[in-house]
Amino acid sequence: MRKPKILTTIRQYSWSLLFADLMAGVTVALVALPLSLAIAIASGADPGKGLITAIVAGFLISLLGGSRVQIGGPTGAFIVVVFGVIAEHGYDGLVLATLMAGLILLVAGYFRAGRLIAFVPEAVVNGFTIGIAIIIAASQLNDFFGLSLDSVPADFVEKLPALWEARTTFSMQAFIVGLVTMVLILLLKRLVPKYPGLIVAVGIGSALVVLLRLPVDTLGSRFGMLPNHLPIPHLPELSWDRIVELVPSAFIIAFLAGVESLLSAMVADRMIGGQHRPNAELTAQGAANVVSALFGGLPATGAIARTATNVRAGGKTPVAGIVHAIVILLIMLIAAPVAGYLAMPALAALLMLTAWNMSEPHKWKNYATAPLSDRMLLVLTMVLTVLVDLTVAIGVGVAVGFALRLSRRTDESDWTPPQR
């Protein structure tokens, strides 16, 4: 079924549900705001692109999606592939690849491919997720420690020696701001888990820079003013050669968007006792990525952490996700200059904790006790993600996973789908 969930939930909508969705939407928006900025920066894009994606794609994913509580937008899973596409093809290339990925997802939704998530080995999903987390964390060391580098190498193997050589430029002020922000995020999450502690922690860390006049980079000092309006939608430059060149990137973006959104919807189902519509979710992801590209935004998908925040904050229907997008739009229109004061070490601390959570350390013990073949597949996918390329990692991981499955000659029911 490709029918959007909002058409079902709206039939029994009430003032009490509206109030719950409003409160949850505002809460999620305050969490999504700094994350969207930080993810865009880590991806090698202008921070404003993160806001545009959260607004446009977040709105459409909730409006058209197959989950009651799914929240969409830019996510950490895309950082590696987006950074690589921008580095190789420029930002225009990323926009075209995102547009093509959206069309691929629309086709997948039309042909009811949502159930195919069950055939992707769990070890592959866990392996590339941990690999992405490692790369994200490494990419934030420069800002967290306040190192002075003319340019940070994109390749992980080259990045670490470059960071080590720059160790003498370490800034104690930047490190303290990052550390304070990290401690506050953890503390507020423990003390008031239902409230948007992320924006409070990043705000306090950034306020230290402003009030004490610390020599620490901010969004404004590095990138200039954030946009205070949405751009006019337009098509990227199209040519046959350019399309062919970007096909591999488009497929990997589509794959990530599909897998991440369906995993997030599965997590949401367990939290609320519901059942999402996978084909509607793929269709929504396709539409969201097409329109995000037209507005010059980043790839988008369902965000597991923001979806869980929505549920904990009391979100009941897709209206909460729509409210979240509208609140971010209002912040962009009214308070964009204020966001320019956000400190880079504070955003780096936020992303480093995001990377840690992405790796799901509470599951490491289960990984260690899994069958040897699953452990090897996880490690293979993780190593290829970090040292080679995400496309290669997923391609090799899925191929090896299917080969292992065939070699076991087991029934379909013995193949465990991803559980997150």
From TrEMBL:
It is a multi-pass membrane protein. The chain crosses the membrane at residues 12-41, 47-64, 71-87, 93-111, 123-141, 170-188, 195-216, 246-268, 326-356, 376-404. Signal peptide: none annotated. InterPro entries: SLC26A/SulP_dom, SLC26A/SulP_fam. Residues 18-369 form the SLC26A/SulP transporter domain. This is SLC26A/SulP transporter domain-containing protein. It is found in: Membrane. It holds the Pfam family Sulfate_transp.
